Request: fold
Amino acid sequence: MTSSSSHHTRWSLVQTAKGDTPQGRAALAELCEIYYRPIESQMRLWIHNPDETRELTHAFFARLLSGSQLAGAESTRGRFRNYLFASARHFLISERRAQQATKRGAALTENTDTLDEEIADDGQTQPDVEFDRAWTCALIHRALSTLEAELVSAGKANAWTVLKPWLSGTANHGETAQAAQQLGISETAVRVQLSRLRQRLRHHLEQQIADTLSPGVDLQTELRHLLALWA
Reply:
């Protein structure tokens, strides 16, 4: 993948999502669909209350859908997951401060820094391992969906159904014989198809990752980092 093609889709989606147009609203909806679970997982680590987690995650994405949360999102500012993580953290801190102010009926009398400590220990401002792992799962799911659409479009839906377990990591050792029987081909042919599909999956995953990086961030380093967390 060349640098000329590696930094357009996701950041372009963000830029489109800033517009108050049908295309902008569709782009926002797509962003929410892709990244809802990573943000929900991080909220769960911060909040420790399932009901409040769901409520505040929904509120964050409602704010995102309004477009106001994306005002400062630019590809020159680094990884998109860092931006989204920081936005969620700032949103939660603001919500906690508003809740405290409402309870007191006036300005806070305690140091608001303690609110930051409730959300992130040691002044955490970057995604942690769990957030990155959830982010990776979202990207892999997206890459698998793209590959599935590719095969279905090519009239190979049955091959996808049979071979998907090897790509998603759920197949058991020795099941290639069963797959060969289902597809009416040899085990060698199954292994060849799996090799090609893994290459296509890696291509789609690289594209998913590259789309969230700013120019200058090394794609392969990012890929190795995220795959190590997934493994």
User: Anything to note?
Assistant: Residues 147 and 153 are 10 Å apart (CA to CA). Confidence is low (pLDDT under 50) at residues 1-9, 106-112.
